Amino acid sequence: TTTTTAPEAGTGVFSRTRARITTRTLRTDRWWLPPLITVIGLAAFVIYATIRSFVRTAYWVPDYHYLTPFYSPCLSTSCVEGASHFGTPFGDLPVFLPLGFLVLPFLLGFRLTCYYYRKAYYRSVWFSPPACAVAEPHAKYTGETRLPLIIQNAHRYFFYVAVLISLINTYDAVIAYHGKTGGFGLGLGSLIITGNVILLWAYTLSCHSCRHIAGGRLKHFSAHPVRYWFWTQVSKLNTRHMQLAWTTLGTLVLTDFYVMLVASGTISDLRIID
Ligand code: FES
Hints:
It is built from eight helices and four strands; from the N terminus they run αββαααβααααβ. The protein is mainly α. The longest helix is centred in the first third of the chain and has 23 residues, at 33-55. The radius of gyration is 23 Å and the shape is globular. It binds FE2/S2 (inorganic) cluster. FE2/S2 (inorganic) cluster (FES) binds next to α3, α4 and α6.
């Protein structure tokens, strides 16, 4: 255990009204394990997603119309032919800008301000606090009342954008049923992309802000049966929000990785209907 010297008058765990315990925690279990696993998981995703977003290779399979979610929508003339489903309103992009530059900040903002991810990185990265009954190293606690953490309150707006992005991803999934010679086709890639989109919807709709939008600020549920029904459904999904947050990180990587393998010619897509 680490010892900390409590300053005379402070805030948080050093405030006058708190018990004067000089050790950082009295816990003897491996309380540091969950934050450690969390930070490894988050870091692995961030490193993978950053590299893939910048490389500009193997993100589109022209034969089967598979587009990785990291490059969707691809709106610049730097995108390979066929990958721009919504036109190319932007010209060539400099190499330091990812081709998905328009949505990536919103996706990042959506996840960074997510209620679940806040819990995850406040504990594992920010140590505020690292675990129950383990004192944080910070001398001051200002919560989410000032910059930069006050931005957390914008989560609802990131949610609106996330819904739009999910619609775009749904379009990408529909067109991923494309045969090599045109018409309908079905491959393992189509199924992976579809599975990812379904889970992304589940994650997005299980959002706490979504739950509040559906059924919040109502005095009487009985007077709003439709909103009550939506709220009930979202509430059921909401209990799985943490699992969906992690599952979708995994399916995003899996989808991108599969598209990369097929697009680069490393493997060929398993075709069920060509
Ligand atoms: Fe997690 Fe909104 S609370 S996405």
